[in-house]
# Entry
Amino acid sequence: LSTMSRDELIAIGEDPDDPGGYFIINGTERILVLVEEIAQNRIIVEKVDSGNVTEVARIHSEKDGYIQRHLLERKANGIITISFANIEKLPVAILIKALGLESDKEIVNVISSDEEVQEEFYTNLYEVEITSKQEALDEIGKHIKIAQKESRIERATKLIDKYFLPHLGQTPETRIDKALFLCKAIGKLIKLHLGKIEEDDLDHYSNKRIRLSGDLLEILLRSILLGKWGLITRITYNYQKLAKRGRIPPLQAIVESNVLTNQIVSALAIGSWVGGRTGVSQRLERGSFIKTISHMRNVLSPLTSTQEHFGARELHPTHFGKLCTSETPEGATIGLRKYLAIMAEITKGLNENERKNFYSSIQKMVV
# Structure
């Protein structure tokens, strides 16, 4: 249809003004709405009132569509811990030393040049009593409950290379960069505690990103193929099971037919998405042409209608020009279901290779 002229579309009974951009699932027109998320690869700090935790820093590290969430927590006694992947509440001083910064003086100087901030962090260094990189890696291995020391160090090394701040790289050469980034996050967290900076405004649109339909389908496809019990895992399992019996099976015998198609169609039909999101796929409104266009520009918040979050429901100054300031439903979902402003456009971010090429071209221009 996209290659047909206006007259050709009319001749076959199609609406020449139909914008497209929807799927037909079981005879029903469905669209993928835009999904609002916290910006990736940024340090977001905020105050909390949760038990003995006083401040937290969040980092959503994204690489090639995969997001690894990191949470730094500062306790009332000054100890800062980090949680990511299958690591829970690991003292940050251990992780910094495991990444290659072993000198206490070097660590506090990287965190901040402010003596008050440095003094605040020294508590963490006194608490762990670890002096070398190998000791730190061994301690991380114990934290994830690996029995043998050699295996502990190997598993800990692989874990921090692959799952800790993957947007900075997943090779041994990037460990120092990761240590510097972590120190920056720690410094920001301590400054928030000392009142030297304000907490980040989560409702400011510079701290938000919008997932388009292509991003959502990429996340879904990645989950179906590479998830814990994804298609690749099942193919590998079926192959190994038959190979143990002395048979080399043909590809047709180990690949479950239509699994990929069925799971994608099911997600589009129901609207349930990766990460527990619901309502991502919706039936297209056809009340009028304007209503159709408006529905396609719907922006869905990750918050549920039962959560209070008054700040997220209010109009923020940074919404002007990006989101419609008046179009939002009344009731429980007010402010959580928004719509793009009539002239708003979304720019697509650069991937890692495009960024490298861009930075390289700038460096050549400067030289």
